[in-house]
C-alpha cells in the first residue's frame, strides 16, 4: 500500500489532555479549532477522537506537519495540550497516541504497524478485556506480538468465536473500520493549492473571496450559518497558520465572509510574512438555520 493510499483511510487518534479544571466548557472550542484544519472528524468522547488526515495530506511527512499544526492551533486557542498518533488504522492510531503523553506525536508509517505493536503489553490492545487478558496470560501470551503470531488452533482454544480473529488482526495492525462521522458538520470550508507560491496580496484576496463564495453556497445548501470565520495559510515550507475571529451574529453571506477572511489573511501575513502555497476559508460555530447577514436589518 502506498503512503497516499494509506492516508486515504488514515485516521489520527487525538487524545486531548486537559490542563484546566473547567475543561468541559472548552470542548466546543477545541473541536471547532481542529475542524478548521481537518474537516473529517469522528468524535469518540469529549476529549478524544479520530481525524481523517487523508483528506488534507498526500503523504506521511505532510501528515506529521498537519498533526503538529493541530497541536499548535489547539494550544493557541485553549492552552490545552493533545497527544496524537498518526497511522493507517484506528487501532494503531489510538495506541500510538498514548506513547508520547501529554503533548507528543507518534507516527507509524505503512508497513511498520506490526513491528510497532509487537513489544507492547497485550492488555493495551483495544478489545482485550480482563477475561481475554487472563486467558492469554495463562498461555504465556503477554505481548501484542505474541497474540499476532498465534495459529488458528491455539487462537480458537484461547479466544473462541469471532473475538480471536478480530484481536489477532488488530495485533497485526489490521483494522478496516472507517470513521463514523458526526451527523452535523463541525465546520464548512474550502481551500485551494496554487501551482506556485504567491505573494501578490491582491491575487490572494481574490482567491479568498472566491473561496468565501464556495463556503457561502455550501452553508446555504445545508441551511446553516456560522459565527466563526477562519482563514488558513500554508507556506512554501508546508507550515500552516490559521487566524480566526468570532462575529456577533451568525452569517452565510459570501461578501461578509470574504471581507472578514481577507482581514484575517492580512493579519496572518503581518504575523508571519512569506509566500503562500495554499489558502483556505472556513466557517464554524454553526447554527442549523440561517440568520441575517451583519449588514442586513
* Shape annotation: elongated
Sketch the topology as an H/E string, one letter per element.
HEHEEHEHEHHHHHEHEEHE
- Helicity level: 25-40%
| Cross-sheet strand order for the largest sheet | 2-3-1-4-5
Distance between the termini: 56 Å
Number of strands: 9
Q: Largest beta sheet, briefly?
A: 5 strands, mixed
Strand content: 15-25%
The total count of helices amounts to 11
What is the typical, i.e. mean, pLDDT? 84
Structural class assignment: alpha+beta
Radius of gyration: 22 Å
> Regarding quaternary structure, how should these chains be classified?
single chain
Low-confidence segments, given as residue ranges, are: 1-22, 290-297
Report on the structure:
With 297 residues, the protein is α+β, with helices and mostly antiparallel strands. Helices cover 39% and strands 25% of the residues. It has 11 helices and 9 strands. It has helices at residues 3-8, 27-35, 60-78, 90-97, 113-117, 130-138, 144-148, 152-158, 163-171, 201-221, 254-271, and strands at 11-17, 41-45, 48-52, 81-86, 105-107, 187-198, 225-235, 240-251, 276-287. The strands form 2 sheets. A 5-stranded mixed beta sheet has the order 2-3-1-4-5. Strands 6-9-7-8 form a 4-stranded antiparallel beta sheet, sandwiched between helices. Strand 7 (225-235) and strand 8 (240-251) form a beta hairpin. Helix 10 packs across helix 11. It is elongated and about 70 Å long. Residues 1-22 and 290-297 have low confidence and may be disordered.
SSE inventory with pairings:
Elements lengths: L2 H6 L2 E7 L9 H9 L5 E5 L2 E5 L7 H19 L2 E6 L3 H8 L7 E3 L5 H5 L12 H9 L5 H5 L3 H7 L4 H9 L15 E12 L2 H21 L3 E11 L4 E12 L2 H18 L4 E12 L10
Parallel strand pairs: 4-5
Antiparallel strand pairs: 1-3, 1-4, 2-3, 6-9, 7-8, 7-9
Helix pairs in contact: 2-3, 10-11
